[in-house]
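Entry 14. Ran structure prediction on the chain below.
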Amino acid sequence: MQARFAPVRDCFHDLFAVGRETGAGLSIWYDGEPVVDLIGGPGWRPDTLVNVYSVGKPVAALCLLMLVDRGRVGLDDAVAAHWPGFRTPATVRQVLSHTAGLPAFPVPRPAEAIADWELLCADLAAADPEWEPGSVAGEHAWTYGHLVGELVRRVDGRSVGRFLAEEIAGPWRLDLGFGLGEADQRRCADLSYGDQNWPTRMLGEPGSLRARALGNPAGGLGLAVLNSPLWRGAEVPAVNLHATASGLARLYAGLLADGTLDGVRLFSADLVAEATRVQYDGPDLVLDRRAYWTLGMQWEPDGSWGMGGIGGSSAWADPERGYTFAYATARLAEHDRVDELVEALHSCL
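Output, structure tokens:
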């Protein structure tokens, strides 16, 4: 690690020293080169995978955007043009930007349904939208990955997990994936709560749109499900990407370099520009605040784009400052850890 980034290392170590962190990885690229790569916690190795929740949404989106880049699907195509029987009159662009009107699965389902891709997609296809598509946003907390992933499957024939592995993770050497096999499951860190009230706090008011979006199927905030082979082996692309911080930082380094990493071009510069442009600026009915949605990411007023996950993991690119940042944690808590690491990083730049 370059000496100039010592304050970042010290901040990372302090999180463990005071008990705010129990297992995590941190990876930062600056000016096109990896400059920080840290892991901490009992049993953690450089190849330890961790569930990073919504940090996976842009990864799923990139699979569909690759098909857009190849001319296989259009951003302003109706979803139903590729997915017969899909009732909501939304476009591919509206799905990608969280404005499609389907932020929650419409039928209450038990935890076992997590592994039933066809059932959950059929629920979405038959659903009525909760608002006119394109009129407002609401983070499609769980549904996003099924909407995007089923479009990938309908257009390409492969599941989004297999598409990711073969078309993106393989060529760019990214250690991340959806729907893990047994060998990769053995590399996973078990998640734990920073405090026992975390799941209740994250769900919000019972019956609210947020609670419906995050609480169905059951179990998505429960450790017994999250640390199980059911969860790790299923494809729930909105929320169950398992990744290393270094894999995520590499991905954003490729996007920051206009779609090329280590000489391997996966995306056109035009596609990256469109994917990282603000498509929606306004209230988000699930987040209950103003949001800037690109095609799969959140844009921030400082010009950065990426995604944080419930629980504290996060990954993004900051074009103005020239870095990519990824934090993958197994301790489900708030984002204050990332805030402090970023403050330390900015002090080094």
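The chain has 15 helices and 15 strands. Will compare against last week's run tomorrow.
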